[in-house]
Design goal:
about 300 residues; alpha/beta; 10-stranded mixed β-sheet; 13 helices; about 20% strand
Length: about 300
């Protein structure tokens, strides 16, 4: 198995390295530890000023030396006789470098921290991990913890969610890990029903009655997937809930003390949710545990 681990020396990236070091990778796996280093354009928001009162060469040299120390420490922590570790420093934007090298190395997985170093603009537009998720062609693991002991698999029956199944059944990482299969029916009453603006109570009652088939469908979806995982030799249990998918997934994971949420990058969502941001993006931005997002290879 080939894994790209992105680091920048930050606390978040050290969590990612520690998580990778603890996971049960197949024998002969190869870990690529990568750090992207900025140059003048990234450090000052533009090319080196011709009259800048700083030693720009010294700054570039210091940045590279720090990156070399980060990679050396990461490689030492990841070292194991059953796998190989290769380190790389590349000048450029972090997200671009990570996705480009992932393609070049033909990796099976990208691992990133939940946040990294960046400018104020980067923080406002979204973290490096969000950009990697948008553009990567392989699964992405966003690390927020140092272990994977309990997994929540968010399942809605969609094609994209189906892509997570081979990861759960074929990767040795999940061989001994309990999996909670959660399917969420997005059948909460609209605001005008909850606010009592629907007119007679019979309207609200009719709405709830019409939503019941969706609730039953999602329970059946969860049970079917749990059975498929059990047939593959995994410990799996089915659950269903009703509510906003992202909020419900995160609340369920917190209540079950999950250390990882597995989901596709998109699910079955309407136009409003598409405009506001996908379920996956909301979970990535706000969940407190690690996130594994299924992506298909290019």
């Amino acid at each position: 198995m080939r894994v790209l681990v992105a680091t920048d020396g930050s606390k978040c990236s050290r969590v990612a390295v520690e998580l990778v070091a603890r996971l049960d990778w197949p024998a002969a796996s190869k870990l690529y530890v990568v750090e992207a280093v900025p140059s003048g354009v990234a450090v000052f928001g533009g090319p080196w000023p011709p009259i800048a009162p700083v030693d720009t060469d010294a700054i570039d040299r210091e940045i590279r030396e720090r990156a070399e120390r980060n990679l050396k420490e990461a490689a030492a922590e990841l070292a194991d006789p059953s796998r190989s570790v290769e380190t790389t420093i590349v000048a450029g934007r972090a997200a671009d470098t990570i996705t480009s090298l992932a393609t070049q190395y033909e990796v099976d997985l990208i691992v990133v921290g939940s946040r990294g170093h960046g400018t104020l603009e980067t923080m406002l537009l979204g973290s490096v991990s969000s950009e990697v998720i948008d553009h990567a062609h392989v699964p992405v693991l966003v690390a927020r913890g140092r272990d994977i002991e309990r997994v929540v698999f968010a399942w809605d029956g969609s094609e994209r969610a189906e892509r997570a199944l081979p990861m759960l059944t074929e990767w040795s990482l999940f061989r001994e890990t309990p999996i909670e299969v959660l399917s969420v029916a997005d059948a909460e009453p609209p605001w005008w029903v909850r606010a009592g603006l629907a007119g007679p109570e019979v309207v609200a009652e009719a709405y709830h009655h019409a939503a019941e088939p969706s609730r039953r469908q999602h329970q059946e979806l969860a049970e079917e997937m749990a059975a498929r995982l059990a047939a593959a030799g995994l410990e799996a249990r089915a659950s269903s809930r009703v509510g906003d998918p992202a909020e419900t997934i995160m609340a369920f994971a917190a209540a079950h003390d999950a250390s990882l949420i597995v989901l596709g990058t998109h699910g079955r969502t309407g136009l409003q949710r598409l405009l506001m941001g996908s379920v996956a993006r909301n979970v990535v931005l706000h969940a407190r545990c690690s996130i594994l997002l299924a992506r298909s290879a290019a």
